[in-house]
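[READ THE FOLD]
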Amino acid sequence: MNLTMQIDQIDARELSREKFQKNYLATSTPLIIKGFADLYPAGKIWTFEYLNKIMGNHKIGIIDSSRTKNTAYTGYDLMMTFSEFCSIIQRDEETPYRIFLFNMFKEFPELRQEFPTPDIIRGVLGNLALAFFGGKNTKVRFHFDIDCSSVLMTQIIGRKRVVLIPPVYENLIYKVPLTSFSLIDPDKPDYEKFPALRYVEGYDFVLQPHDALFMPSRYWHFNTYLEGGMAVSYRVLANKPGEIYNGLMNTTFRLAFDKLMYNLSGDTWIEKKKDNAVKTANSEIKKWIKEPLLQLKRD
């Protein structure tokens, strides 16, 4: 994998709605918006201590990233209060625990006033904002957002490493059928087992506190919390009818069918999907074989 692509960056104060929608949303071009959170009260007052005063007693579902998930359906692994969770992720030690897709503004609507829908993405999905929390070295598996929406993710607290892969490489990254995730670990790409990765290019960068990342529809991403942190993602409806259709199918029929087959067949179903992921990638290599191999640095 060649992860040396350079992502566009712009100061939040220099980005208008017109410029964003013309140059990035309409063209499906990823972008880092520097200091975006500072345009809102959240960027000035949101800390773990502040959020804990408001949400500390709230019982919330926790994902354990160390547990293997074989389908796109992801349930909670345990429950704890937000205060208990905060005490874990603020320690200077690794933890697999994270909060995923937390509808924070529904539970605590007063917080929306401190980070309202950004004007640059205001639209059909404008009020749908989801919060994400994780501790040091918590990893989020390599995936794309299953509803195929574009995402504006604002990192409020802590740094986050992001590996971002354009959708043009989807058939080369061993996508598991009927899911939104892959067989590969971008931290440890195995070129002997997964040779199609030789042809994949993408981005690898650190998202700093208060910066926002615009991820266009179907961009694959692998996130690692470098310390305890939180982000809020606002969603943007895909600008292509085909992606809107795929998003609806993914979150309804395909997700339900995959879960049903897993319940009926268990590991047999999982292994069949893994085999199909490898076959698809091997077939895709033939389309790229005439291109020079990327110069790869292997450890």
User: Anything to note?
Assistant: The chain has one domain: 8-288. Confidence is low (pLDDT under 50) at residues 292-299. The helical segments are 17-25, 41-45, 48-55, 82-89, 104-107, 241-265, 267-288. Residues 241-265 form the longest helix (25 residues).
